[in-house]
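We modelled the chain as a single entity of 381 amino acids. Its sequence is:
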Amino acid sequence: MGRGRRPVARFWAGVVSGRLILEDGSVFHGEALVEGSRFAEIVFNTSMTGYQEILTDPSYRGQIVIMTQPHIGNYGAYDGAEESHRVWVEGFVAREFTGRRSGLGDVDLGAYLETNGVPTLAGIDTRAAVRRLREFGAMRGMITSCDRPDEELIEQVRQQPTMEGRALVDEVTCESPYDIEPEGGEKVRLAVYDFGVKQNILRSLVRHGARVTVLPARTPATECLALGVDGVVLSNGPGDPEPLHEIVREVRELVEARVPTFGICLGHQLLGLALGGKTFKLKFGHRGGNQPVRDEETGQVSITSQNHGFALSADSLPEDCKVAAVNLNDGTVEAFKAVGRPIFSVQYHPEAAPGPHDAARLFGEFLDVCVQEAGPRNEAL
């Protein structure tokens, strides 16, 4: 039994024991509220709310998420909070789950997790588990309700692939293009590359007057440009950006065409790679709604929502790229601009679902750039 374990809210009678196992040999015991076994990278999120958005964020493909907030499920789960058409996390862990919802929820979170087949573990010392990850870094691991010996499972965990080198966008992208009409009048037409796009990114764009065409991740740049769009958004997504050589090549073509381009999270990393930069894996990543980011021009600090395990190396960016914002916790690149070109990207999530809305203005600013650039491009044609 885990040290300091307390009784958890039970969704059903007959809850069985479960374990969270890390590749360093750490084993945390608790109760499997939804039974099952999954291997994945173990990460943690510091958000206090927004668990349903986290569960349905495609960027969590290949990961088991531990919530640092000890009490999860207060408001249940409800229609309209999903960031995609399904749950993507491989497993879900919290200290304690609420068995009775209040507020917005249509169903209890437990029922939602069970319906979606998400192995769920409660009752462990999540603080100890997260401190382990902070000290030694994100690890391979598993969540399980099976009764096989610890030693056998630890060895199996160590045989799993690491997140480095994993190209996961093909598992989460759309199969074919589709259009979304703007709210109100059409201000610009945008193409959004779906590397695992969150729905609130799309909602934010159409709310600002963009007609959006969502494109599969490996759409050639020539097909995108043939649409006559005023700008391109490169979305968030899961996995390591380095193996996505073909996608980086297409992004480079977009850059050379001088079409206004806005990268978000994985899209930010891919844009950096296309411009000649390099990425590296963070020790334990940034996942939560409380990351402080400083604008290097104005000195203004925004509290941002983030979810990523890789980052751009500032020293690798070419001279015509300017670091526009940095993370105040660790100094990593949070935004950059291409000097003299309508190219901008951010590592954080301006759509903030969940999280603060300090950076929501960026969508409107990008659309303004698209409008300004559309005139000269049309004259050139």
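As a brief sanity check on the tokenised model: Confidence is low (pLDDT under 50) at residues 1-13, 377-381. The chain has two domains: 16-158, 169-380.
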